[in-house]
Design a protein that fits this description.
Length: 444
């Protein structure tokens, strides 16, 4: 077979590539999942060539994503140890990346955050802070999270009192995870609205609804908005680092501000901002999208709602199955540091790959009847939290927040009824439903 033929075979049909690569393609979930399915069955490792973007390999099978993510020495996140900051783990179009490089002297590392780092830098930063997010360390926060869950449920009961249709995202699910996380970090309640706005801007840069006033969605302006959001975060967290270094408290802000490098020195302030922004962003839309999505799945499956209401020990299984189907984090990009053979395709050094977690989680080779909502799946080896060295270090926080909320909500809930299919965030990165109308009924 000639080289030209081989190359031709690996190029993904245009409409499928656009469905997955372009943020707007993610607004139509049925078409998106159909595109993933087509790729898994026909071109599991295929090259997407979409105008405005660097060519990239879409990786859609569960096993291949595990293979890529378990080899950081071959597939780096941020450019590798020799060229840190040269690769963006968040898929952005060429104009956006070019703009960032211009602003940051050739670097695309907009944040000193873990997804942008490779070992040994990544290992050091991760080990310094993230043991404090292991289940045993989270026990101290359980009561404060439960109190916040109860407050959110009381609000939901109030606004649902007269059989009113509410927007589950805006009126209920959006704020709780951020409030829970901010309370763990130790941020004052008055500042929650600012954090909420910033996280929405951070993730929804491509969604018209979340753009800063007056900024049109050209690629440069999207990058500009992102950068303005990051600067706003930095300004806010600067005071927090100062405060906690002077006067440490029993909160995550103090853990971050006083964490030490392997040489026993405090991390730079920029590194601390990176950790805080990780908490505020990574832990917010992810969990709220999962909460909304779970409630929608329960509205669509009242039999499952009855089961989990009657037996809340099923909640962890419910959460895992919802995470599998929703998978609010769609990708984190990787770049090959050397040539590598993946499912018969030659990935060249320098090539970019897009591991697609949502697709892995519907791979029929791993999950029986993958599109079905089945809380009895055991095991349920979903990749909603990723895999390998970058696997989500906040997964226990996310699961704890969801478990506390559902433990509190389900026994009080009589029914939840969908009043429309809702709308999905236009993003190829992190997001789920941005609006979903529904009616809740509570036990008297
Ligand atoms: C339902 C909730 C959540 C989901 C579905 C989720 C999913 C993910 C995924 C898929 C990754 C990328 C893993 C990879 O590259 O293989 C990730 C990374 C990360 N998540 Fe989460 N996450 C959630 C909640 C949280 C929370 C609550 C926090 C913080 C408290 C958090 C902090 C992080 C951080 C810091 C990273 C970067 C890790 C690294 O690059 O080493 N996440 N998350």
């Amino acid at each position: 077979m000639s080289q030209a033929q081989t190359r031709e075979e690996t190029i993904i049909p245009d409409h499928i590539a656009r469905q997955i690569v372009l943020p707007a393609g993610h607004a139509d979930l049925d078409a998106l999942h159909e595109a993933y399915r087509w790729l898994r069955e026909n071109m599991p490792v295929g090259k997407a060539v979409v105008e405005g973007y660097d060519p990239l390999w879409l990786v859609t099978k569960h096993a291949d994503i595990q293979e890529v993510e378990s080899k950081p020495e071959v597939f780096c996140a941020g450019g590798g140890p020799d060229k840190p900051g040269t690769h963006n783990p968040i898929l952005t179009n060429k104009a956006g990346d070019d703009f960032t490089r211009e602003m940051l002297d050739g670097s695309v590392r907009v944040l000193e955050a873990l997804p942008f780092l490779d070992p040994p830098e990544h290992t050091e930063a991760r080990q310094a802070v993230f043991p404090s997010l292991k289940p045993v360390s989270l026990k101290q926060y359980e009561e404060q999270i439960r109190e916040l869950a109860r407050q959110s449920i009381a609000h939901l009961e109030k606004i649902s009192a007269s059989g009113q249709t509410i927007d589950v995202v805006d009126d209920f699910a959006m704020e709780y995870p951020l409030r829970a996380l901010m309370s763990m970090v130790g941020i004052p309640q008055d500042d929650y609205p600012r954090m909420l706005r910033l996280t929405q801007e951070f993730f929804g840069a491509a969604d018209p609804e979340h753009q800063r006033e007056g900024i049109e969605a050209t690629p440069e302006q999207m990058a500009q908005q992102f950068s303005a959001t990051v600067q706003d975060y930095y300004q806010y967290f600067d005071t927090i680092v100062e405060d906690r270094r002077k006067c440490p408290m029993n909160d995550l802000a103090s853990v971050v501000a006083n964490a030490k490098t392997e040489n026993g020195e405090l991390f730079s302030k920029t590194a601390c901002y990176g950790r805080y922004i990780e908490f505020a962003t990574a832990g917010h839309d992810t969990t709220s999208a999962t909460l909304t999505g779970t409630l929608k799945l329960l509205a669509q499956h009242p039999d499952v709602l009855d089961r989990v209401k009657a037996d809340t020990s099923l909640v962890p299984r419910l959460i895992n199955e919802s995470l599998r189907l929703i998978s609010p984090v769609k990708h984190f990009m990787r770049q090959a540091l050397s040539d590598y053979e993946l499912r018969g395709q030659t990935i060249k050094a320098g090539d970019r790959l897009m591991p697609l977690f949502q697709s892995a989680n519907r791979d029929a080779e791993v999950f029986d009847k993958p599109d079905e909502f089945n809380i009895d799946r055991r095991p349920n080896p979903h990749l909603a939290f990723g895999y390998g060295q970058h696997i989500c270090p906040g997964q226990f926080v996310g699961k704890l927040e969801l478990k506390i909320m559902l433990d509190e909500l389900l026994p009080r809930l009589e029914s939840v009824e969908s009043a429309g299919s809702g709308e999905v965030v236009h993003t190829n990165f992190v997001g789920g439903l941005k609006h979903w109308p529904a009616r809740f009924r509570f036990a008297a």
